[in-house]
Design goal:
alpha/beta; 6 helices; Rossmann fold
Length: 178
Amino acid sequence: MLLIIGLGNPGKEYEKTRHNTGFILLDKFQEKWNFPQFKIEKKFNAEISTEIQNGEKIILAKPQTFMNLSGDSVRKLMDFYKLTPQEIIIIHDALDILLGTFKIATNSSSAGHNGVQNIIEKIGTQELRRFRIGLGEETTNTPNCRLGAHDFVLGKLSDQETEKITALIPEIEQKIFS
């Protein structure tokens, strides 16, 4: 079994924002993999889509707790399905990584991401596999973390930014299933 959590904030006002990169990618996976439509599961406080893929049960989950409280939903899912941290993947935005790229973090700190920090606190370990999706800018060939990060991540993605993020899907899929 594999639980793939996309981080974001619920509500229309947050749709297509940079901070909802995890939700956006899960929506693309749900569509591409022909999973059922997401449905709210109150017992997890998350939108869920579940299907069997290559003989393995895969659960796509979008916590509806707001980003910084995502750990509550992840803990409930983990307990209900009796999952280990190794069976969980978190997909989230990362300002310190160049837009159009991603990094995989395993057994590492939250790097200042409050949603990830809350998950680590609630499940009691940082031994998770995380796909950190870059939103950073290129300035003299190095990723640049913006001042005013809060306003930036809550801003809407441009069409060009969305294209760069969704272009990562084949590579992310390959890494998820390898």
